[in-house]
Design brief:
Elements (H helix, E strand, L loop, with lengths): L2 H28 L5 H29 L1
Helix pairs in contact: 1-2
Length: 65
């Protein structure tokens, strides 16, 4: 994985982890579920990370075939 993609993946993962920690803390402290917008934001980051990683595996498959 190129350094740039690696840094992007790390950035996405850090954001996702932080958001999930905050959501978990809210559930534990208040017993409230996160706002739909918060969940959509994390899902968008997960999708971006998936696309970043999927692009890598697709290029590997093309080079193998």
């Amino acid at each position: 994985m190129s350094q740039s993609k690696r840094e992007q993946a790390i950035s996405h993962l850090r954001y996702i982890r932080q958001e999930l920690r905050e959501m978990n803390q809210g559930v534990l402290d208040d017993g409230l579920l996160p706002e739909p917008g918060e969940i959509r934001g994390v899902m968008a980051q997960m999708e971006a990370l998936y696309e970043l990683l999927e692009g890598k595996s697709k290029s590997k498959e093309k080079s193998i075939n």
